[in-house]
Amino acid sequence: MAWRDAKASRVRLLLFMASIVLGIAAVVSIQLFSNNLKDNIKLQSKALMGADYIIDSQKIPNERAQFIIDSLGPDASEVNFVSMIAFPKNGGTKLVKVRGIEGDFPFYGTMNTQPVSAESTYQKSGEALVDATLMLQFDIQPGDSIKVGKLTLPISGALKSIPGSTAISTSVAPTIVIPNRLIKETELLQFGSRKEYQFFYKASDTLNLRRLENKIEPLLDKENADLDTHTSTSRRLGRRYDNVSKFLNLAAFIALLLGCIGIASSVHIYIKEKLSAIAVLKCMGTSRLSSFLIYLIQISGIGVIGGLIGSLIGIGLQELFPYFLKDFLPFTVEIGISFQPVLIGIGLGLFMSVLFALLPLLRTWYVSPLEVLRVDEKGAQEPLKVRLIVFAVIIAFLLGFSYWLLNDIGYALGFVFGTVITFSVLAGIALVFIRVIRKYFPKRWGYISRQSLLNLFRPNNQTVVLVVAIGLGTFLISTLYFSKDILLAKTKIEQSEQNANMIILDVQSEQREAFQQKIIANGLPIVDNIPLVTMRMHKIKDRLVNDLRQDTTRRVRGWILNHEFRTTYRNALTSSEELLEGEWIPSLKEGEPIVISISDNLASDAKVALGDTIVFNVQGVLMQTTIGSIRKVDWSQLSPNFTIVFPAGVLEKAPQFNVISTTVPDEKTSAALQSQLVKQFPNVTIIDLRQVYTIVEDILDKVSWIINFMAFFSIITGIIVLIGSVRTSKYQRIKESVLLRTLGAKNNQILKITALEYLFLGLLGSLVGIVLALVSSLCLAVLVFQEPFTPSLIPFLVFLPGITALVLGIGLSNVQTVLRSSPLEVLRREG
């Protein structure tokens, strides 16, 4: 019986199925990719690091740290730093990451070079390996030379890949590998240079890395060094990409939820149309269970087939993710198919279809045989207790599924609470709308207008169902769109002709005057000349930093205790700073108490407030300071920002170096200036922000594409839901339209009546949905993203008229059957 009835209603059932296919496809593709990513991270964690574990330090290890390093017997080591290099062949200059390696690194994975022999010969021959893309860019061949600081050496080969580098990092600063023994000859490691010392270890398979990490890490932490194992790297990478997966999963879940809403609204109308047939079956002796199972089998079949189709689409879609995420991954993801997400997809299709269709399905259980005779009476309703149980099960499932995807009970509760509130508000507005129209019915309006309004509250009306379906679909689509704007707005880069677009780092005090004269001689302005003084915290309030390191109950964040702060001094705030608390002190006279300004994140992590004291170790000299103000810093701006700022008159005599910035008009001028500066001052590091802008904007474009790609799933699913819900609603109006034709109504009149009815429904549902989306997005911006919210006009200019036009178009197509055929023919067909 279920099969026979399904064949007769196959068009409607296919629309139900389409509602969940894309949602299932999104969930399955993301789950498959997440599983593959985690498996790849586990398998390739050693190759990513190149060793079993690494000890690293931001400065030359002290005696105690070196004793620990030597006792473990390092198999290889390196010092790395960022610097400018030059190609004597053509005068080209470039910011690079120099890695001075000693030993047979890497132990796992490969150092991919061209020619292949360069990897094994560069250390003995004293040559360099240069990033392959960089060599192409400057038309350099193996055998040409490269100048690193004061050292000029031949190029052994092109470096295609090396463990420890990613596509993003090499885009900003390509990697150059030279023998460690030649680093001293470059004369680049001077005061203030940012460098890192690393020691690589190859361990036996029997070594317990977790136990080693727990034992050695606290000892190294006291000496300002760190231990990193390939297993901890694997865990860290997994957590990093888990955040990406959470966002993608949430977007997929919205698409799936939209599909479920489509199932619920469509099945509600579908079952309502079948109630008279069920009553006839019961008159003929069919039991409650049998009549219920007929339609339960149909919906279950839809869920299984929809889940299977969605899973197959998801398998194909997962192939796209490695392509779009390749720049964010430090390795190539090998795609495989696991059956767990596929089974989850089929199970979700079955479970969610039945769960969200259960409430209208239960109506078949309570249909009375007398329903055949009671033409004008409202159908039997399931008891309130049953409805509340079904609602509770749905909410519990949504909460559990949200928690599984987001792994945060607070976000899961917020998401489900927001959805329930939205559903309730939409249903409430629809009911109030019906009552207002009934109470203030415009009796003086024309026949067509009155007839369309009557359809909104007469028996068998679809106002509540369609307003909820249209409104909730519009709400979720608009919320996703607004959230996308918030996410992308956080990553926008503002460029201006007045802003510096070239920053020069590591300018020594004795070089400062000559450096500025060189820039001015090229007709370029000095935008900023910022002095930098390095220091560490010695005492926070009344406690020594060394004591805090050993205190396991401390509330102060660990990074503060080991960090070497690069501070500055000046007499004014910059455009990227905002004073939150206290008073800004521009300058101090000699002998006055030293009052400093700190950033809000430092105040939070160090657990300090206005008036608290901090003692700094300024390269061997202890300096007591008092916190006089707290600033909010916009760290997203590509300009020098500082956690600690001293007033003028305090640090001028301290050992320091400078950051100088200028504005260059074009690429040719930039290249010429870089070439001159690197030749005269080989120790400086030059960052051309125009190149950084290009790289970052390219990355952001890809991030934007991924976010838009997932939003596309929800929007398409929402449209299918609307089509399914509104299309199915035609079966509620066919008999009324046929009756009107029988009474002499013209096709034009029926079209106008239908058009006005669906126009009211589309406008009301979409407008309320967008307004609710505005409120929810504002809450997301303030509470979750902590960003200002500037709403886009796209939902109002595109979604509101677009969804209304879609609803109107589908509504008008619903009556085409009636208009093209005779009344008797339509009644026979529908009967």
Please sum up the structure shown.
With about 850 residues, the protein is α+β, with helices and mostly antiparallel strands. Helix content is about 55%, strand content about 15%. The strands form 2 sheets. It has a 6-stranded mixed beta barrel. Strands 12-14-19-16-18-17 form a 6-stranded mixed beta barrel.
Structural account:
With 831 residues, the protein is α+β, with helices and mostly antiparallel strands. Among the domains are: 1-47 and 242-408, no CATH class; 76-187, no CATH class; 502-695, no CATH class. The chain has 27 helices and 21 strands. A 6-stranded mixed barrel has the order 2-3-8-5-7-6. Strands 12-14-19-16-18-17 form a 6-stranded mixed beta barrel. A hairpin with a 2-residue loop joins strand 6 (145-148) and strand 7 (151-161). Helix 2 (10-49) runs antiparallel to helix 22 and helix 12 packs antiparallel against helix 13. The longest helix has 54 residues, at 230-283. It is elongated, with a radius of gyration of 34 Å. The protein starts with a helix and ends with a helix. 38% of the residues are buried.
What order do the helices and strands come in, and which of them pair?
Blueprint (H helix, E strand, L loop, with lengths): L1 H7 L1 H40 L3 E5 L5 H9 L4 E12 L4 E12 L8 E3 L3 H8 L2 E4 H6 L7 E4 L2 E11 L5 H6 L2 E5 L3 H4 L8 E7 L7 H14 L2 E5 H54 L4 H30 L2 H6 L13 H24 L21 H23 L2 H31 L7 H8 L8 H27 L12 E7 L3 H10 L6 E13 L2 E2 H6 L7 H5 L2 E5 L7 E6 L11 E6 H7 L6 E6 L2 E13 L10 E3 L10 E6 L4 H14 L4 E4 H40 L1 H13 L4 H39 L8 H21 L1 H5 L2 H8 L1
Parallel strand pairs: 3-8, 5-7, 14-19, 16-18
Antiparallel strand pairs: 1-9, 1-10, 2-3, 2-6, 2-9, 4-7, 5-8, 6-7, 11-20, 11-21, 12-13, 12-14, 12-17, 12-20, 15-18, 16-19, 17-18
